[in-house]
Amino acid sequence: MMKTVSTITINLLCQALDFPGGKVAYISEMRFISESNDKRIPCYRLLDDNGELIEDSDIDQISKEVAVKMYSEMVTLQMMDTIFYEAQRQGRISFYVTSVGEEATNIASAAALAADDVVLPQYREPGVLLWRGFTLEEFANQCFGNKADYGKGRQMPIHYGSKKLNYFTVSSPIATQLPQAVGAAYSLKMDKKDACVVTYIGDGGTSEGDFHAALNFAAVMEAPVIFICRNNGWAISTHITEQFRSDGIAVKGQAYGIQSIRVDGNDALAVYRTIRAAREIAISEQRPILVEALTYRVGHHSTSDDSTKYRPADEIEYWKMARNPVNRFRKWVERNGWWSEKEESELRSSIRKQLLQAIQVAEKTEKPALGNLFSDVYDLPPSNLREQEKQLRETINRHPQDYPSDVPM
User: Fold this and answer.
1) For this structure, is 301 an active site residue?
2) Of 263, 274, 322, whose CA–CA distance to 298 is shortest?
3) Catalytic residue among 72, 99, 260, 301
4) What is the pTM of this model?
5) Which end of the chain is more exposed for a tag (fewer CB within 10 A), N or C?
């Protein structure tokens, strides 16, 4: 008696290929996996655009102290960006990058971490360093590249770093920090540390090979690392629809076997709770997490960019006013009775004075000595470096008018 088609199908479904990674069932019907789901991955949030707590939100209690500090630091970051941006436009520093529109992702994610957690940033996370205790004077010293700058003036402005605060120095090449973060996380795992690594990237950086290598590396090695992607829709000038066909960034995590979540990056409460939960999973389960924060870069990509050349002005204005993360969080803090107009005025006045003072001091502080250009790489400088330094000094002596007079020889 011949077997029916349905019987053959059932028999095939009962069979499986015992392949590394788990058994794979056989089917007789040819099926291609769909390129995308019918529904997009939802976005987690707790506050609506008016700063109202959404009904039935599963929010953990956040203390007044933490909430007020979060708001204060968001304001500080906002003001720091404004004043340093103006300083660059005045020609006092050479370059600057703002975090306008992304303050909640910066500060709230930092607030959810512990001091022992290691941070490998991109270049738009100064708020994380601010939260950890980096002073306005330290920010100014780095941007002006004076002798108090920990990088000894050898980095571009905004390439901050602090060994004391577990914050790796910013590196200009896009996404190189991601595989490094996985390696650092694996070292924490080997040492059985109660900590994780957190690394940041923009949506543009996910088009780099390092992003994909890092996710695969982290998943296979089960490293306690949190990848936080600030998806602001534009990278520098390339819209995400021209960059990838997938449903944003979070969906990429599943392809590599990584738990992922999409969160409203302009909702400080949602970001805070998300990163707290991600940290708990990363450490307790020793595994990576991918977080996609939907936000928007209101400012230009950098002081070298004019974003009005590729973005509609009304789009920028909408996100600046209607979706402003600082204003949204302030409304929630005020509703709790934790903030007032008087405190707002006093905070902004104080921060402005501190910033102007920090810039004035940093600007007048002596530059690093010329010899710092050739130090810190080798224990004993090789002959080629010694020759280069000799040639440079001879050239400066011949043409002193062409070199800064405030750089000690």
Assistant:
1) yes
2) 322
3) 301
4) 0.93
5) N
Which is catalytic among the residues 28, 36, 86, 94? Answer: 86
Q: What is the DSSP string of 347-364?
A: HHHHHHHHHHHHHHHHHH
Per-residue tokens: 2: 């011949």
Is 343 noted as a catalytic residue in this protein? no
Q: Which residues contact 285 (CB under 8 A, 6 or more apart)?
A: none
What CA–CA distances, in Å, run from 28 to 2, 12, 35, 239, 313?
A: 17, 7, 21, 41, 54
User: Tokens 């901050």 — which residue?
Assistant: 160
Q: Which of 28, 172, 187, 345 is catalytic?
A: 172
354 closest CA partner among 148, 102, 80: 80
DSSP 367: P
Of the residues 109, 260, 302, 307, only one is catalytic, namely 302
Q: Known catalytic residue: 302?
A: yes
pLDDT (tens digit per residue) in 30-45: 999 888 787 899 999 9
pLDDT at 20: 85
> In sequence order, what DSSP letters do the residues of 307-337 get, joined into one string?
GGGTS-HHHHHHHHHTT-HHHHHHHHHHHTT
